[in-house]
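User: Can you help me understand a structure? I only have the sequence.
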Amino acid sequence: MINRNFKNVLVVSIGFLSLFTAYGGLQSLQSSLNAEEGMGVASLSVIYASIIISSMFLPPIMIKNLGCKWTIVVSMGCYVSYSCGNLFPGWYTLIPTSAILGLGGSPLWSAKCSYLTISGNLQASIDGKKGSDVINTYFGIFFFIFQSSAVWGNLMSSLIFGQANITVIPEEILSSCGVNTCDAEIISNPIPKPENKLVWTLVGCYIGVGVLAMIIVAVFLDNIDQEQTKRFRGNREPFCQTFLATFSLLKDRRLLILIPLTMYSGFEQSFLSGEYTKNYVTCALGIHYVGYAMICFGATNSVCSIVFGKLAAYTGRASLFFLAALTNLSCIVALLSWKPHPNQLPVFFVFPALWGLADAIWQTQTNGSLKSLNLLHFSYKL
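Assistant: Let's start by predicting it. Here is the structure, written out as tokens:
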């Protein structure tokens, strides 16, 4: 029989799996599905700009007042609002809901890190083990389950969009795919979008699994930090003190060194989900292949997250970072010279798989570095 803390880790992991099945699928489709005037890419930019702003002050305020559990639930609601905005995509629906999602993104991840850390320490005290060992195990379980969300979300999109009538992409469009898209003139006959009925079906499914994530966490997750939350409410700190406490972390030079790595991690993910899916996959194969390509990314990412998490103990983080950088650089050089064509179908899936390998290193080792500095769950301590 599983213990209470392990059960809570599974609940958090399954909740995030369900939530990011929806968000991950929508993210991969934005540059293709909402390509008019760059609306999809603009919405993603607003999301991450909002996350940056919210991370300055919102996580400690929400976690201390609501506790980790209800911070997760409320933040998940912000993600669901973005799915609702995609039912009728436009500048007046996507941009506001993108901002709402971004505001909830930072508290969501901070609360998750805090919750897993508290659970790991509680279980370590019960079993008489080292806290960091149990915490590492819990984070490994979480990321193994979470990373598979890319598989299920993208599988949904490909299966639903695959029901549409598949049109043959003409050669004049194929000649402008890939790196040539930068210099291509606007083509009078663009690649047709899926029918609105199929889009609404997909977005409706994404809204459903997002709401399911909220219900799972609200009903089955234990409120393990309830006492800490009550003590804080009775002794509130000034807002300025909480706000400045976040920036006080920048005094640590080790954290400053890790900032470029976390920034690059966001850049490389954005390239794959924004540029590669639009200019290579959708342009040459059609939007119904985007999901299958991203499944290769998600599956490789999930498996490699476990492999490199274990391998780091023997090789060190520096050699793994070098491998990830070399893999990304090799893919970029190859993409600059490759002219995508439907006759080269396997190649479309090789690049996401290699990108997933590299991303697994960036994610696991950057998070591991932050955790070793005791900064991954800092929001709860502020």
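Now, to help you interpret it: The chain has 15 helices and no strands. The mean pLDDT is 82. Let me know which part you'd like to focus on.
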